[in-house]
UniProtKB/TrEMBL annotation:
Primary location group: cytoplasm
Keyword NADP: yes
Protein name listed in UniProt: NADPH-dependent 7-cyano-7-deazaguanine reductase
List of residues binding substrate: V56, E57, L58, H75, E76
Species this protein is from: Candidatus Nitrosoglobus terrae
Domain of life, per lineage: Bacteria
Pathway, per record: tRNA modification; tRNA-queuosine biosynthesis
EC number from the UniProt entry: 1.7.1.13
Molecular function terms, GO-annotated: preQ1 synthase activity
Keywords, alphabetical: Cytoplasm, NADP, Oxidoreductase, Queuosine biosynthesis
Biological processes, Gene Ontology terms: tRNA queuosine(34) biosynthetic process
InterPro entries membership: GTP-CH-I_C/QueF, NADPH_dep_7-cyano-7-deazaG_red, QueF, QueF_type1
Any single Gene Ontology cellular-component annotation: cytoplasm
Length: 129
């Protein structure tokens, strides 16, 4: 049976909850519709997060992203909605979503939204000799 788009994000337990580590996911085929013209908008999404107790399950993420294909949304709104939904299910220590939209009318748009848990600071990078 073919898959269907879904707004249900699933998670699994972080296998290393006592360690800060970064998960990076590139989603090069994001599509939604321009709410003014109804024409498709294309973007590459770059998701970067430091999990706490849960990680997002990738197939569920794929189906979730697919659910935006026929939805009209401004770039700023859709980027922040996706980020809010990921925060709601994962509650990561840190998360950043960068949405790089393809050119439309000679204009490129990149929207960057991020969240960090209170009192969580990015660990310092150790410079090796």
């Amino acid at each position: 049976m073919p898959s269907q788009p879904s707004r249900e994000l699933e998670t699994f337990s972080n296998p290393f909850p006592n360690r800060d580590y970064t998960i990076r996911i590139k989603i090069p085929e994001f599509t939604c519709l321009c709410p003014k013209t109804g024409q498709p908008d294309f973007a590459t999404l770059h998701l970067e997060y430091v999990p706490d107790h849960n990680c997002v399950e990738l197939k569920a993420l794929k189906l979730y992203i697919w659910s935006y294909r026929n939805q009209g949304a401004f770039h700023e709104a859709v980027t922040n909605q996706i980020l809010d939904d990921l925060i709601a299910v994962c509650n990561p220590r840190f998360i950043r979503l960068t949405a790089e939209f393809s050119v439309r009318g000679g204009i490129y748009t990149t929207v960057i939204a991020e969240y960090r848990q209170p009192n969580w600071n990015t660990p310092k990078i150790v410079q090796l000799p």
